[in-house]
Amino acid sequence: MNRSTNEAAGANTIEVLAREISRVTRTNGDHVTTVPGLTLHRRSVAASPMPCIYGFGLGVIAQGSKQVMLGEKVYEYTPGDAMLTTVDLPVVSNVTVASTEAPFLGLMLSIDRRIVLQLAADMNLDQAPKECAYQSIAFKALDPAVLACLIRLVRLTDEALLAPFVAPLVQREIVVRLLTGAFGPLLRHVVATGSPSQQISKAVNWLKQHFSHALRVDELAASVHMSPSTFRLHFRNVTGMSPLQYQKQLRLQEARQLMLSQDMDAGSAGVRVGYDSASQFSREYARLFGAPPLRDIQRMRLEHEVSSATGWKI
């Protein structure tokens, strides 16, 4: 590596990424950018654990810390860490280190599975070694070259004319570097034809589109050419939960969004997402979100009003 390359690499530090994210995100909240698939996140206070869904993508923390829980596993997520999720995962996460002086700063970049498949084929990469176990979520030290790409992406949010043309090229470079880096074996598991992870991904996509329907696990298993017992085993290995638990989280997350964004009452929201019993819906909602529907929605609206009054966005 020559001197100019060394200097360029040295300029692309996690502190630089933090400054760029801070510059773009003047207020607390989740900020959708002009770069497709890129969201920036800022928090000035630590928060209680909150259920959410992580899609297929790359997450990076530039400042502060976060905790992510999948099933019974707990992951600590700190500056310089890269998180890769390869299937839509209902997780519980919360910011653990943040302050007004040093807010939590991070980003999420969605990854297009089709691009991974195309680039892996174009690069003629070998399949992942059998001894490399598949993981639906993994944490590694952030590759300096990927960090440099991410800094460029964040800076592109200021260049509305260039972003639509340059951002896809940078995103493809990120995928190439992920495929050839520490996350490579995991991504090659994802695109391996006929692999259990690929079959479970198909089942997950079906559940996302039909979560309000009655779940017949045997039929879903047959649709991905697995026996029910094998399907249940692989589904839990990939998502950290059973198919029924996964469907339940999808239903409850959607019901919460309906009540928040469309001012729908709890009974109507429960029916819309597939519940026949209002009491069962309320009971399972409270178990997931920590309070019954009405109280939870009131709390979230109050927090939004407080954040708006202080110039924050949550």
Attribute tags:
about 325 residues, alpha+beta, Jelly Rolls, Arc Repressor Mutant, subunit A, 3 domains, six-stranded antiparallel beta sheet, 13 helices, disordered C terminus
In terms of topology, how is this protein built?
Elements: H1 3-11, H2 14-24, E1 29-32, E2 38-43, E3 50-54, E4 57-63, E5 65-70, E6 73-77, E7 81-85, E8 89-97, E9 104-110, H3 113-122, E10 137-141, H4 144-156, H5 163-180, H6 184-191, H7 196-209, H8 217-223, H9 228-239, H10 243-261, H11 266-272, H12 278-289, H13 293-309
Antiparallel strand pairs: 1-2, 2-9, 3-8, 4-7, 4-9, 5-6, 5-8, 7-10
Short description:
The protein is an alpha+beta fold and 314 residues long. Helix content is 50%, strand content 19%.
Describe the structure.
By secondary structure, this protein is α+β, with helices and mostly antiparallel strands. It folds into 3 domains: 3-190, Jelly Rolls (Sandwich), CATH 2.60.120; 193-240; 246-309, Arc Repressor Mutant, subunit A. Helices cover 50% and strands 19% of the residues. The chain has helices at 3-11, 14-24, 113-122, 144-156, 163-180, 184-191, 196-209, 217-223, 228-239, 243-261, 266-272, 278-289, 293-309; strands spanning 29-32, 38-43, 50-54, 57-63, 65-70, 73-77, 81-85, 89-97, 104-110, 137-141. The strands form 2 sheets. It has a 6-stranded antiparallel beta sheet. Helix 2 (14-24) packs parallel to helix 4 and helix 5 (163-180) crosses helix 6 (184-191). The protein is globular, with a radius of gyration of 21 Å. The model is unreliable at 1-9 and 306-314 (pLDDT under 50).
